[in-house]
Amino acid sequence: MKFRLFAFALLAVLSTRAHAQQECPDRSAYEPAREIIRDLGRIVAPNGVQESYATRIGGIDQWLNVRGQDRGNPMVLFVHGGPASPITPSQWQFQRPLEEYFTMVNYDQRGAGKTYNSVAPDSIAGTIRIQRYVDDAIEIAEYLRKRYGKRKLVLMGHSWGTVVGMRAALQRPDLFHAYVGIGQVINTRENERISFDYGLEQARAHGNTEAVREMEAIAPYPGDVPITRERIVVARKWPQFYGGLSAYREESAYFFRASRLSPEYDDRDRCAIDAGSVFTLGRLLDEFLQVDFTGVKEFPIPVVMFMGRHDYTTPSAPTEQWLRQVKAPYKQGVWFERSAHMMPWEEPGKTLVSLLERVRPLAVEGDAGR
Asked: What total of structural domains would you count in the chain?
């Protein structure tokens, strides 16, 4: 079996390559298909926006991708997972309908995709810390408000991006109409425990002796010993194999190979996804393992959580429990019954409807109150 894992709720391509570009094959054969996707995705509406550019954020050039059919629509700042798994190369798979109702902004975080290629990695190695990512998100939000004339934005995060997003919303609630968490991280260690228990239960139920042997060798997990990269590989491998990343699927090739058809990425950008994962993973692991939002009892802005019923990458039970006890101006949990961790890709229709019903009114009403 071949695995590319969302390790410790971060997308980690578990590779020993220092620079994945050296082993990244040419994809020129895909160009005719990419051209069709490129043409279909062109924003031709007179008041639309379609821009891809780098701007100075946090002292380095970071790449933004801005798309929408109407500049007057609410703007969504989408904080991707990873920390080095940008949404830009896979947005063609699900985002186009959202662009009719929102101006969607994706950015390649420091150490990810186009941004990874825009700066010498060694020069930013010391900045790979959670708070720096939070500061970047806040700076981008302020930049977008000014450039596009928005009073506030909708902040949305997926997986690792929910750590950044939650902290940004708590730190600067004045910038945002609402926060949307997709595959929300509440408590890392609790997520690890639930995910591991699910994987071991499924392995035993399916008589998978290889999986049982591997998982029992690191049990109890996470336990009281260090959560090393090697233990994470085993702990994440089997829950995801049993549908904890994409529901009912043993693998998620549709996502991991999406960049091959992306009109936004060339080969160098595509290869930077793997290289960025290698670069960021070890630098963030220890800090990420301490993430715990259970003590947040009040949230300053409306909060909506999208929860995959089958998500055992960032299990949904802690998110549901957190929502019950938190006080917020507005709070709502939305269950995605046929999804695991990849809700926008697995159920794009429900993603659109949920944003229209639960989130867009908050932004429209907020803008009306200028």
From this structure: 1
d(CA 121, CA 160): 20
Residue 222 domain flag? no
User: How many CA atoms lie less than 13 Å away from 145 in the CB half-sphere?
Assistant: 16
Give pTM, 2 decimals.
Answer: 0.93
Give the C-alpha separation, 180 to 52, whole Å: 24
Name beta bridge partners: 55. Answer: 62
C-alpha to C-alpha distance for 179 and 301, rounded to whole angstroms: 7
DSSP 8-class letter at 356: I
Task: Describe the crossing of helices 188-205 and 209-216 by its angle, rounded to 10 degrees.
Answer: 150
Q: Which helix (H) or strand (E) holds 140?
A: helix 130-148
| C-beta separation of 366 from 175 below 8 A | no
Mean local confidence (pLDDT), 17-35: 69
Note whether 154 and 177 are within 8 A (CB).
yes
Are 50 and 103 a contacting pair, CB within 8 Å?
no
User: Any idea what the CATH number is for the domain that residue 184 is in?
Assistant: 3.40.50.1820
Our CA dihedral for 302, 303, 304, 307, rounded to 10 degrees, sits at: -170
At CA 63, angle to CA 58 and CA 65, rounded to 5?
130
In a domain, 295, yes or no: yes
Partnered with residue 336 across adjacent β-strands are 308
Per-residue pLDDT reduced to its tens digit, 237-272: 999 999 999 999 999 999 999 999 999 999 999 999
Report whether 355 contacts 347 (CB < 8 A).
no
